[in-house]
Design a protein that fits this description.
Radius of gyration: 17 Å
Strand order of the largest sheet: 2-1-3
Shape: globular
Distance between the termini: 22 Å
Order of helices and strands: HEEHHEHEEHHEHEH
Strand content: 15-25%
Largest sheet: 3 strands, mixed
């Protein structure tokens, strides 16, 4: 999320390996773009180690107030759809849309609408997993990153999970 916000604010960073983190002393990676992750860069890694793995990476200092402001915008969009929003982190939430179906349509239609609204109102992309349970929705969202939608219907759940490696569970 942090890397996505940095790219949103500075489009010249798009497509480049990006590390969001402190450079002084024992700086730590707060976030890394997918391009940097391909080199093994991960959150909570020492920035010096990350730069050894990916020397061509651009390092930017975190802008936590900006991330919080955009997170609030996204969460407000979620709350416009359903009051049942369970915040997990600055960039992740579970939405129970069972009570919103009459107003907004099927869970898939709601997911597509949410992604569209987030992009239109914030400029950010988001990945969405739709499923009957939170755990399966989380897995679906993870598999659809960085900018996708994966719907797992109730009857498809067992087959979907069976096909995954144990690590994914």
């Amino acid at each position: 999320f942090y890397a996505s916000v940095e790219v949103l604010d500075d489009p010249s960073l798009a497509g480049r390996p990006l590390i969001v983190g402190g450079m002084e002393g024992r700086g730590v990676v707060s976030s890394a773009s997918y391009e940097a992750r391909r080199f093994g860069v991960r959150s909570a890694m020492n920035v010096a180690q990350a730069l050894r793995l990916c020397p061509q990476a651009v390092v930017v200092v975190p802008h936590f107030e900006r991330y919080s402001a955009l997170s609030r915008q996204v969460m407000d969009i979620f709350h416009d759809i359903t009051p049942s929003v369970e915040l997990l982190s600055i960039d992740e939430a579970f939405l129970d849309v069972s009570g919103a179906r009459r107003l907004w349509g099927s869970p898939g239609q709601i997911a597509r609408m949410l992604r569209e609204r987030v992009r239109e109102q914030t400029g950010l992309v988001c990945s969405v997993g739709v499923a009957a349970t939170k755990h399966v929705a989380k897995i679906a969202s993870t598999l659809s990153k960085p900018d996708g939608l994966l719907i797992v219907s109730g009857p498809e759940t067992a087959a979907f999970l069976a096909a995954l490696p144990v690590r994914a569970l």
